[in-house]
Amino acid sequence: MYLKSLTLKGFKSFASSTTLQLEPGITCIVGPNGSGKSNVVDALAWVMGEASAKSLRGGKMDDVIFAGTSGRPPLGRAEVVLTIDNSDGALPIEYAEVTISRTMFRSGGSDYAINGQSCRLLDVQDLLSDSGIGREMHVIVGQGQLDTILHATPEDRRGFIEEAAGVLKHRKRKEKALRKLDSTEGNLTRLNDLLTEIRRQLKPLGRQAEVARQAQTVQADVRDAKARLLADDLVTARSALQQELADESVLVERREQVEQQIATARENEAALEAALREDLPALAKAQETWFALNGLRERLRGTQSLAAERVRNATSVPEVEHGRDPDQLEAEAGRVREQERATDAEVEARRSVLEQAVTARRAAEDAAAEEDRRITSLHRAAADRREGLARLHGQVNALKSRAAAADDEVGRLTLAREDAVARAERAQRDFTALETKVAGLDAGEEGLDAEHEAASTALEDVEQRLAKLREEAAQADHDRSALAARKDALELGLARKDGAGALLAAAADPGRLSGLMGSVAAVVSVRAGYETAIAAALGGAADAVAVADADSALAAIDLLKADDLGRAGLLLGGAPADPRDRPALPAGAVYAVEVVDCAETLRPALSRLLLDVALVDDLSAARALVADRPDVTAVTREGDVLGAHFASGGSNAQQSLIEIQAAVDEATDRLAEAVAAAERLTFETSRLEAERLDAQKRVDVALARLHESDATLAAVAEELGQYGAQARAARGEADRLGQAIAKALEAREQAVTGLADLEARLSAAEDAGEEEPSSDERDRLAEAARDARQAETDARLALRTSEERARAIYGRADGLLRAAKAEREARAKAAERRERLLREGRAARAVSTAVAHVLVRLEGAIARAADARIAVEQARSGREQELLGVRATLRQLGTELEELVSSVHRDEMARTQQRMRIEQLEEKALAELGLDADSLAADYGPDQPVPVASIGSTGSTDEDSDDAAVEAVPYVREEQAKRLRAAERALAQLGRINPLALEEFAAMEERHQFLTEQLEDLRSTRRDLLDIVKEVDARVEQVFTEAYADVERAFDHVFKRLFPGGEGRLVLTDPDHMLTTGIEVEARPPGKKVKRLSLLSGGERSLVAVAFLVALFKARPSPFYILDEVEAALDDTNLGRLLEIYEELRENSQLLVITHQKRTMEVGDALYGVTMRGDGVSTVISQRLRESEPA
Q1: CA–CA separation, 11 vs 58, rounded Å?
Q2: What is the rounded average pLDDT of the residues 327-337?
Q3: pLDDT band at residue 98, thresholds of 50, 70 and 90?
Q4: What is the DSSP string of 399-411?
Q5: Whole-angstrom Cα distance, residue 298 to residue 851?
Q6: Less Cβ around it within 10 Å: N or C end of the chain?
Q7: Which of 111, 116, 158 has the alpha carbon at shortest distance from 134?
Q8: Residues 576-643, CATH architecture
Q9: Binding site as annotated, residues
Q10: What is the 3-state secondary structure (H, E, C) of 291-326?
Q11: What is the 3-state secondary structure (H, E, C) of 963-1025?
Q12: Contact 592, 635 (CB under 8 A)
């Protein structure tokens, strides 16, 4: 057995797929530091099951995945494949070549496979453990592991020997047995607790079971007594109801007589009312005439009063009142108009005076201000001279120096700005050139983007279709479940619990009852839409049971009676057919028989039941059909029945069995369709899953190519960004320098301007004299300005006064003219009104004279109309008196009828209550005793004798006692009531009864026996597990003892070769307990007396660790070893000794050595060189050093 090949893909620095072909012998792997040599060792450990990220020189497990470099994007997974030659059968697997692979995804998932078959990490470890390769990986000696061996505890060193000796599988067997033992102990504890609890519950449950047995006997007495008392109440209530029905006929006869008398009285009342109605027109006419004449008289009197009032108004008309003369008002308006024109002229004059005052004031103020500025300038010149000409000279010189410095600064900044502009132009040229290159890369990127986008679109389309299919499949499953539940629920509705159901159950038992064809709902098929109508037409027969003939019907009735199974309707087959022809029906109607399909033997019976029954759409059609054909019974689709002598209908809250059977058939068909649809969607989903996987692969390939292009673009973009930053920095610097130049020029201009001002002040100071300027002229001009302002104020006041006077009289002339016009119009209207009143007064006198004449004639007409009205009213009074007598008689008869009706209603209520009591008794019998009313009265009525055995302690009248002679006594209610009270008292003395105690006690006893057997099985299992643990301990002790002895001898031999003249040995820390003892290493190099490893030099410690490992390798050889720079700390002499040992190990094992030593390379059979490329990816080259000899 040896390692044949190792393939790394995406593992650490091996981004590309890299394969190392390995052969027996020594294979050396060389390369510079950091090139990835140790990653090969990590890959071997990782693929053989290493689960510690720290052992693989990482922080977390996904660190083994290629993380990417500046020139290559990161990968999403790492994969290592190890192929082992198993031609010698060292591995317990029937393959000459074994391939172990491990894949790690960045999402955290990890997959293992053996020869392409997925497996677990435990399967890989179990496969390698038999060859001496365990969890500790002692065959892989990595960097720093030598120090780990030296600093290991004695127990850890023991672990190395156990792993090499193959003790691990025995340890696992022991650990598994101990886990089972712990679980067994827990189960034993729980079983003991359960048995204790069950034993504690058995005793009281036994007592409850005994009480339940006694209660059964007492409850039988209670039931029998209750049944007889209830039957007595039922028979008594029925008899009372029959007597009340007989008494009702007398009251009904008297009520009919009273109703006849009321009808006669009402005829007389109607005749009198008709006569009174005939007199009404004459009376109404007389009254209307009288009322009309009275109204006319009142209107005439009102007219007479109105005429008198108008005459009075005409005689008292006043003369027209006069106001101010309109001519005087117009003259006064002319005078006011002249005043307005004079005031306007005065305002214009005063406005001119104001403008002249304003002009004089401005001139005076300007002269005073000019004089004030002149004197101020003279004062400043004197002050400057007093400050001294030397100071002005200093300021002038300073500004000259500042201006010169500003000129120099402008020159320097201009040169710097030109340099920055030149650098910006160079960076921009480089940026443009690189941008052209990026454009070419972008073209390729667009193609990759399009490819990726197309693949992604295809994937999204498949996923959308798949999601839609999954939703449809989920909906189909939901529909299928709903339909199955509906079908089950409807089938439960078909389950019968009455006599019909008992017959159907008996038919299922072969040989018990023959001739049953099934329920009518099951054997009859109804056209869709007519189920409710057929159920209503059949009535109770819809819930009946179909039988083959009359003999079968009699057998079924005998069975119902014999087993007390209740009652059931039976539809008999084999009856003779009805030869009569059915007449034709109008359009829209159909005979009920025509929509029913059944067996031919049942057709005559159904035809008889549905004789002359027609189906129509609604009640209006039913009414029309029955009116046309009285011998036909019409049934609507909603189940309403209408005949010539009977009708039924209303709401239909409960479905019939025919409707339920139709719903079951419909649900069955829809369920079959839903199942077919669900299967079709399942197949379609599988096909789309395959398409989705293909599309996902295309997306992954396109995405990988796109990532590579993105990495290239990123590098170019980074360089492009650098050029852009340089150009922006240079332009920014040029802008800043330009702003500095502008500020320097501004400062120079300010200095030049200040210099000119100072030179002017200096010249003025030098030319000015020392005399103090005079202020007399300034004072005179200031006084003149004040006088001008006062004159302006006076002119403004005069102008405002004139304007106020003008506003006061403005519009007064117009008002006077309007008043004159209004006065003339008022005088004209007053004259016209006086003339109108005079005309009305003359007309009113003529009207008053005519009205007085008409009123005299009208009084006579009113008297004649009153006489006519009185005559008609006297003629009606006699008939009204007679009508009042008839109505009094009607009231008396109505009162008597109401009393009779009330009596009938009271009796009806009493009978209704009696019927309700009978129904309550029947429901009580059915609920408490499970007996219908007829069976209760027939079996337990007061006419039935009471068996003496029923009164005794057994209280049973079941069929079990039929064989014994039973004495019967007549029924006496008091004795049965006394018997019921005694039984109930006995039942109360028993206390609370657990009706399930008998079943619970039996179940508890059975459980106790079962748990007792289980407890014994667990104890037996515990003994077996302890025997296994002892056997494993003995085997481990034997294997470890033999392995330790071999390692101890090999260590002594190897140590003497590596340390000639030195002494080294292995020592057990606890020789008396070989299962737990640790191992100490003692080493004394030649010429030294120290034995502690910590006092040795670094090279000596490395040699001691190498000696221990080589001793382990020789004592329990492994097919291969991986050594990572174990000779790094050795000198040439010790290196030569170690290489000799390598030569010896090569005879039986394969060695894979990571080294930097040239001498180590020389002893190798093959050489692999590992180097790191510029993009950060490791690559491998190989060289065979020794050719295999020809056979």
Answers
A1: 12
A2: 77
A3: very high
A4: HHHHHHHHHHHHH
A5: 11
A6: C
A7: 158
A8: 2-Layer Sandwich (3.30)
A9: 32-39
A10: HHHHHHHHHHHHHHHHHHHHHHHHHCCCCCCCCCCH
A11: CCCCCEECCCHHHHHHHHHHHHHHHHHCCCCCCCHHHHHHHHHHHHHHHHHHHHHHHHHHHHH
A12: yes
Cα torsion for 17, 22, 28, 30, to the nearest 10°? -10
Closest CA to 897 of 266, 335, 298, 160: 266
At position 555, the amino acid (one-letter code) is: A
Which residues are CB-neighbours of 338 under 8 A, at least 6 positions away? none
pLDDT digits (tens, 9 = 90+) for 804-849: 777 777 767 777 777 777 777 777 777 777 777 777 777 777 777 8
Identify which of 500, 471, 474 has the alpha carbon closest to the alpha carbon of residue 569: 500
Mean pLDDT of 1047-1054: 83
The distance of Cα 364 from the centroid of its chain, to the nearest Å, equals: 92
Q: How far apart are CA 528 and CA 955, in angstroms?
A: 55
CA distance 751 to 402: 7
- Distance (Å, rounded) from C-alpha 55 to C-alpha 48? 13
Instruction: Fill in the amino acid letter for 682.
Output: T
DSSP SS3 for 1164 = coil
- Torsional sign, CA 558, 561, 564, 568: positive
Residue 973, pLDDT > 70, answer yes
H/E segment holding residue 78: strand 77-85
User: Is there a common fold for 148-212+1002-1117 and 576-643?
Assistant: no
Three-state DSSP at 1179 gives strand
What does the alpha-carbon distance between residue 148 and residue 121 come to, in Å, rounded to a whole number?
Answer: 25
What's the confidence (pLDDT) of residue 956?
A: 41
Question: What pLDDT score was predicted for residue 1053?
Answer: 84
Please check whether residue 1120 is in contact with residue 1096, taking contact to mean a CB–CB distance below 8 angstroms: no
The reported pLDDT for the residue numbered 495 is 53
Nearest to 813 by CA among 342, 347, 349: 342
Sort strands 641-642 and 633-636 into parallel, antiparallel or unpaired. Answer: antiparallel
Quick one: which of 58, 129, 238 has its CA closest to 934?
Answer: 238
940, two tokens: 């337990």
Instruction: State how beta strands 596-597 and 525-526 pair.
Output: antiparallel
Torsion of CA 1085, 1091, 1096, 1102, to 10 degrees: 70
pTM confidence score: 0.37
Three-state DSSP at 548 gives coil
pLDDT at 843: 79
Q: At what angle do helices 168-315 and 973-989 cross, to 10 degrees?
A: 130
CA distance 1183 to 1167: 5
- CB of 475 within 8 A of CB of 531? no
Looking up tokens 């027996």 gives 24
Which structure tokens are listed for 618? Answer: 């609604």
**Considering the domain 148-212+1002-1117 in this protein, what is its CATH number?**
3.40.50
Q: Which CATH number fits domain 1-139+1120-1190: 3.40.50.300, 3.30.565.10, 2.60.40.2470, 3.30.450.30?
A: 3.40.50.300
Residue 472 buriedness (CB in 10 A; 0-12 / 13-18 / 19+): middle
Residue pair 165/1043 in contact (Cβ under 8 Å)? The answer is: yes
Structure tokens at 135: 């969890």
Residues 6+ apart with CB under 8 A from 1118: 131, 132, 133, 139, 164, 1149
Q: How far apart are CA 605 and CA 573, in angstroms?
A: 6
Give domain limits for the chain: 1-139+1120-1190, 148-212+1002-1117, 399-497+528-537+656-760, 576-643
Domain 399-497+528-537+656-760 sits in CATH at: 1.10.287
List, for residues 391-422, the tens digit of each pLDDT value.
666 777 777 777 777 777 777 778 877 787 88
Which tokens is 1041 given?
Answer: 């003892």
Which residues define the annotated binding site for ATP?
32-39
923-962: burial string, b at 16+ Cβ within 10 Å, e else: eebeeebebbbebbbeebebeeebbebbbeeebbbeeeee
Residue with tokens 């001139």: 363
Tokens for 838?
A: 């005079």
* Measured distance CA(808)–CA(786) in Å, rounded: 34
